Amino acid sequence: MDFFSQQWATYRAVVSHDLMEHRAVAQATANALEGWLAQRSASAPPPEMVDLGCGDLALLAPVLRRLPLGSYTGLDLTAAVLPLAEKALSPMPYPCTWQEGNLLAWSQSEGPPVAILHSAFAIHHLSDAEKTTFLRGARQRITADGLLLWADVFREPGEGLTAEQQSQVIDHLSSFDIPAEQGAMETLAAAEGWHWRWAWQGQHQAEALAVLTPA
């Protein structure tokens, strides 16, 4: 088994056993998206969506297929997962694009504004300084009435990441995972031009879904 297969098998085990409440996250994401879409003007064009760190879409594909999107772009640092995501989303109800890429680099790139940005369990790989850079760049890449959904692991204010806490919250945390502190990230987001709202909090008090809209 190659390195990707080993790593992906571990990830799939985490998802299959729902160790990080992926099913609840997917439902909370669906609720947030459907609520936002319901509030849009009937004359508004179908929104474009960019999924930053899309993974294999095993749980989110059923949600995406029923949304009236104009287009969907799935971006992931691991190119090998993109065919899996494409297969999960087929048949495609709207134009879809698949890109190998880094979410931080995408946020700093030039391009037309997008109505919906989504990222699940990916932004915590960035340092706090990089998270700020991401929020600043994403603010420039989203439409004035757009929506950024950030599902991830977060630290409560003042919470450290001891080995025991990591084990209790999520088994796969490593030295490359840097969950943001909730209050600090809300403050940083506000400074970069975002309104922040918590849409869902997991039973571990770590996994959560943040809904960000342009201020």
Descriptors:
Rossmann fold; 8-stranded mixed β-sheet; 215 residues; alpha/beta; 38% helix
Summarize the structure.
The chain is of the alpha/beta class. The chain has helices spanning 3-16, 22-39, 61-65, 82-89, 103-108, 128-141, 163-169, 182-191; strands at residues 48-52, 71-76, 96-100, 114-120, 142-155, 180-181, 194-201, 207-214.
Describe the protein's topology:
Blueprint: H1 3-16, H2 22-39, E1 48-52, H3 61-65, E2 71-76, H4 82-89, E3 96-100, H5 103-108, E4 114-120, H6 128-141, E5 142-155, H7 163-169, E6 180-181, H8 182-191, E7 194-201, E8 207-214
Parallel strand pairs: 1-2, 1-4, 2-3, 4-5, 5-6
Antiparallel strand pairs: 5-8, 7-8
